[in-house]
Specification:
about 450 residues
Length: about 450
Amino acid sequence: MVNEIIKITQQYQSTNKKSDRKKKGQFFTSLQSARLMAEKAAMTKPRLSILDPGCGSALLSASLIQYCVEHNICNHFDLTLVETDSAIRTIIPRICTVITGFVQQHHGNIHITVVTDNFITHEFENNYDVVICNPPYMKLNKKSDEANKLDYVVYGQPNLYGLFMAKALELLNPGGRFVFITPRSWTSGLYYKRLREVLFQELDINDIYLFQERVNVFSNEDVLQETMITVATKSSIQTAYIIINTISANDGSFVSQVQVPAEMIKNVGVNHNLLLPTEEKDIKILVWMSGADRSFLSAGYLFKTGPVVEFRNKDSLYLEAGKERVPMFRAANVINGHCVFPAETTKHQYVSSKAPHLLVPNYPTIFVKRITAKEETKRIQCCMYKPYSKDPYISVENHLNYLVRTDGQPLSEEEISQIYKLLSSDMYDSYYRIMGGSTQVNASELNAFPIIAEGDT
């Protein structure tokens, strides 16, 4: 059955451009991911109710049904497929016929409902035993119908996949299975803090699957996402341990597995992060960090994000030095742990001194790049900045974080030297990677970083 559905999917893909599907946030699950998710979603019940939101070609739910039938787990089903895209809906009748025929051939029965409304805003009459989902990946306006419907999980820029997770949780029966393949971005950062709070209150996270390589996890879709599979049960009681598996994105083989105390990695810190250690060394780092009695913020330090957003402030930016202009530091100035100015870039490096909202005091500080490449050896790319002129102000572009004291006093050169040693250490770099794998280094997360004795790193 699944192989036949894959053939139908490939026919659809061949006649619909990747660029068009990408605009709709539509990326198809690979067969190996679908099989893994199906195995983890399977439940022994006389009749299993399954919800497949944003179903696409229904490979996930079909894989689940095939697994249940072939392993004598269940052969009676109620399946709800949700899909709003008119193009992909043209193949759903064929897919329903294939699924129905397979179940009947194995002496079972199935009732399939196809919902063509918006998954987030649609009012469902029933709850489900299993939600299995590869949600669409798409940024939404904060004032969209979807964001308004689920405003209790929205902070800042919402993404449709996070709203799918929240809605699915609402529709899940107690004890039901929650199996999602998503980006890793929901596990940390302020944008997903409210979502995490809701998920952590109502989900017992059982297994997490991380992909070793940043290669095409999806089916011929040219997507290089930092991707994970979350397997959970709807329950307010979290089991003692969560198993974190690292698998190869090439063939689905297991690379490593660690069993981690849930209290160590779930609902951690002021932002309620989900930490993702992948080996015993990572667990030791978490133990060391948990022994710290203060964070950067509680110790009187504050990382801020540079105030200059180029497309908004272009009238105040300059390519060259001149009268009433101050240097503007950007990510290009942070090179191998050193601050280099001017940088070899064609972009603006100076700001009008008559734009006070774009200026910061010319004090010693630490610059930390906000965005780094997955392939870089260090996630935390930072450097010390020591004023080289008596100018009272400099400026900082939005792709850099910079450090200040909360009492407004200048940082000393000794302070920035000690903090630079911490942030550039292997321990701190590993800790940030454990915080979800994001390539964005956010000021709020830096502020929550524990401060440990220099000798412990």
